[in-house]
């Protein structure tokens, strides 16, 4: 569900016509719907209400402070993968005690930062990281709460670049290695075993891989309890997909059933790391048509947003629907919607059938809330877009558009 809809021939975000935002701020601009964000968090929370569950929003999906603040006020915890994300969570009013720290390459400084903040637990991804965490914790005279990310070797049936639970993945450790690491932790005074973690991938469109992975890690959790380890948390990751085009991901209810049924009768606190499902359909990227051109019978529409603003199509060949904000009447034509970046991969939408588009027309790139602005860059020295949060019939800027002088901040001649 989302709150972007046509009203009197104009695309709106909730009750705000998108041209009104573009007229003030220009383009490209990310536009978020507060109603969508709040509804998605509420629906997911309700689906897991029968279990002791902590939702830890995955900050990497969209890290704007205003969005983090909304989720913090709704009671969310946070899944982070860097010290910068922890700093964002704290700045937005999030509680570090409801933070899990994931990622394969945590530095000593990041470990110290998180230990001093008092986070819930570290999701450890290797034996060397476990020993490093122990050393850093002892240097601070603390005990580091941890879980080990076990690799269930489950095919998530998603894009190979966002599958994270296979044997060939850089993430996690095999089950057979994980048990030995937990045993080692008993002899490391800077560590405290708190749980087990897994995550099989992103943009999951089937429930069966989720159930299979949870069954495996639940069995492992029981084995750890049987060995006398003081684990209390089971982190099953996130990854529930959304509809970009023709995907039919499980409903939140189906997803909850796939997660909760294997845990029936188990005394455990469940941790979830939702990202895309909360924010993906809560935003559009507004862009403006610059030029039309034709080459050897192929039509192109050049817009002012590029792969530096929305990387997913270039990186994953991801599909985002693209809609005129004020559709014109007339014959549709098939064309590639491309950006101004000097790369052949700067294609935001290939072979799209669109009604007539004139120079200056606004288009909305849909479902742009997840891994949109958070992956944006200044490649080609292009300032990053502005971000706007809409609430009912009002809107506010939650990130100013970068200026040219922002591009070289910190540099010297």
Notes on the structure:
The chain has 413 residues and is an alpha/beta fold. It folds into two domains: 4-32 and 280-407, Beta Barrel (Lyase, Ornithine Decarboxylase, Chain A, domain 1), CATH 2.40.37.10; 103-272, TIM Barrel, CATH 3.20.20.10. It is 28% helix and 26% strand. The chain contains twelve helices and 21 strands. The protein has helices at 18-25, 34-47, 65-73, 83-91, 108-117, 127-139, 175-185, 208-226, 252-260, 276-279, 312-316, 404-407, and strands at 4-7, 10-13, 16-17, 29-33, 53-58, 77-80, 99-101, 121-124, 144-151, 173-174, 191-197, 233-235, 269-272, 283-295, 298-303, 322-324, 333-338, 347-354, 362-365, 386-391, 394-399. Strands 4, 14, 15, 16, 17, 18, 19, 20 and 21 form a nine-stranded mixed sheet that branches. The chain has an eight-stranded parallel beta barrel with strand order 5-6-7-8-9-11-12-13, surrounded by five helices. Strands 1-2-3 form a three-stranded antiparallel sheet. α5 (108-117) links the parallel β7 and β8. α5 (108-117) crosses α6.
């Amino acid at each position: 569900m989302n709150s972007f809809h046509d009203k009197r021939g104009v695309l709106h975000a909730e009750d705000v016509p998108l041209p009104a935002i573009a007229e003030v701020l220009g383009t490209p601009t990310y536009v978020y719907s507060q109603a969508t964000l709040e509804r998605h968090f509420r629906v997911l929370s309700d689906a897991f209400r029968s279990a002791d569950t902590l939702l830890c929003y995955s900050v990497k999906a969209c890290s704007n402070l205003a969005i983090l603040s909304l989720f913090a006020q709704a009671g969310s915890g946070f899944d982070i993968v860097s010290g910068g994300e922890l700093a964002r969570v704290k700045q937005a009013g999030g509680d570090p005690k409801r933070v899990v720290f994931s990622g394969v390459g945590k530095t000593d400084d990041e470990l110290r930062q998180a230990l001093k903040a008092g986070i819930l637990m570290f999701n450890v991804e290797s034996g060397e990281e476990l020993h490093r965490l122990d050393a850093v914790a002892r240097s601070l005279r603390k005990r580091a709460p941890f879980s080990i990310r076990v690799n269930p070797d489950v095919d998530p049936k998603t894009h190979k670049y966002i599958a994270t639970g296979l044997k060939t993945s850089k993430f996690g450790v095999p089950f057979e290695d994980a048990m030995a690491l937990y045993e080692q932790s008993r002899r490391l005074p800077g560590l405290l075993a708190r749980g087990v973690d897994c995550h099989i991938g992103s943009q999951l469109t089937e429930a069966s891989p989720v159930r299979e992975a949870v069954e495996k890690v639940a069995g492992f959790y029981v084995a750890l309890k049987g060995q006398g380890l003081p684990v209390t948390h089971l982190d099953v990751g996130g990854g529930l997909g959304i509809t970009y085009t023709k995907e039919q991901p499980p409903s939140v209810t189906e997803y909850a059933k796939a997660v909760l049924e294997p845990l029936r009768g188990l005394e455990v606190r469940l941790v979830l790391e939702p990202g895309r499902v909360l924010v993906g359909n809560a935003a559009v990227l507004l862009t403006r048509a610059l030029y039309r051109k034709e080459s050897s019978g192929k039509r192109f529409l050049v817009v002012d947003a590029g792969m530096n603003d929305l990387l997913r199509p270039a990186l994953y060949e991801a599909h985002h629907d693209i809609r005129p904000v004020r559709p014109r009447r007339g014959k549709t034509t098939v064309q590639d919607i491309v950006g101004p970046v000097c790369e052949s991969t700067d294609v935001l939408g290939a072979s799209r059938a669109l009604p007539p588009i004139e120079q200056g027309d606004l288009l909305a790139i849909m479902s742009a809330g997840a891994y949109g602005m958070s992956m944006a860059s200044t490649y080609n020295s292009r300032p990053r877009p502005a971000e706007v949060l809409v609430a009912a019939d009002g809107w506010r800027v939650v990130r100013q558009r970068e200026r040219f002088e922002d591009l070289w901040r910190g540099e010297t001649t």
